[in-house]
Amino acid sequence: MISERLVIDDLVILGRAVPEPIKNGRVTVCTGGYSPKLGLIRVYPTKPSTPIRRWDIVRVPVEKDPRDTRTESWKIQGSRSEWERLDEKVEVVGRLKSDDRPNLVANLTDGCVNEINEARRSLGIVKTYWLWLTSSRR
Fold first, then answer.
1. Residue 134 belongs to some domain of the structure
2. How many of the other CB atoms lie within 10 Å of CB of 65?
């Protein structure tokens, strides 16, 4: 079975998960980002040592894993056979400007997890509100 392959060249890194052990003793980190062309994206596996940071814009060759039905999920091409060189496949091509960050995140937020579930998405950003209560007694 041939899986879908492409190169994402505009992926803004939004965050990375904690390291998780996978098969063969490897340790991986799931990376979440946003592509203006593709929307929210999950890229895996990445090595904990992959030199990317939040707000980096990266270029990465990916493919669909036929066992992963989540539309947002993409696997780095050659992640198993080229594990030792995996860091080289993720190329930082830019960085999102500080002024553009708030608008990007604001446009990606949902009000609650139910909205994400109803849209049948596996990734989302939930907007939270903080209510500070103070006592009138002193």
1. no
2. 15
